[in-house]
Design brief:
single chain; mainly alpha; about 75% helix; about 200 residues
């Protein structure tokens, strides 16, 4: 009799946990961790490219040293931030990481713009190859970030919806932070377009 009662209680417990979203939280938490790992993988790929890009650019004798220095500093800052699984649940740590990666993106973009002014560098096959690889990596980062954003959205909807929000509270499944745009106010302002006569 006791064995039957134990089996029944175990089955009821499993059904109640399955019906309250517990298993969905586990699945989505693992999906978000996996998606985050891919984001980190692509950021690491980009960080590994930077020394090769810098070395190639240094070959251009009169290249702007300040631009190179900013790229080197931004890479150092981006790779110095220790990322742990807890980063996904800590909005402040997540924001610091995102900011550092944004600074590296900006520094690399400026480097590529400045490089356009150096014909010898533009003609350098190694630099052209690195540039193509960097562009491909930036695209991979975008894809990985989008996948992470989608998995976090699913997780957060589950954490905020009834009745699974009760499970979220009981087991401390707080909503996860997601990527945001650093210059949201700036890009939300419509650009001024003036087709008037050019100023003399």
């Amino acid at each position: 009799m006791k064995r039957w009662l134990l089996v029944l209680l175990t089955a009821l417990g499993a059904l109640s946990l399955g019906g309250c979203g517990y298993n969905d939280f586990q699945r989505l938490d693992e999906a978000s961790k996996s998606a985050w790992s891919e984001v980190l993988n692509q950021y690491q790929r980009r960080a590994d490219l930077v020394p090769n890009i810098v070395a190639t650019v240094k070959g251009e004798a009169n290249f702007e040293q300040e631009t190179l220095t900013k790229v080197i500093e931004a890479r150092a800052k981006a790779t110095s931030i220790q990322v742990t699984p807890e980063t996904l649940n800590n909005p402040e740590a997540f924001n610091r990481f995102q900011q550092a990666q944004g600074e590296l993106s900006g520094a690399l973009s400026r480097l590529m713009v400045v490089a356009e002014q150096y014909p010898n560098l533009k003609a350098n096959q190694a630099f052209r190859d690195l540039r193509v690889t960097l562009e491909g990596t930036e695209n991979r980062i975008t894809v990985a970030r989008n996948r992470y954003i989608q998995t976090v959205q699913e997780y957060n909807v589950l954490a905020r919806s009834f009745p699974t929000n009760i499970t979220a509270k009981v087991f401390s499944y707080d909503p996860k932070p997601t990527f945001s745009v650093q210059n949201e106010a700036q890009i939300s302002t419509p650009p001024t377009v003036d087709f008037g006569a050019p100023k003399k």
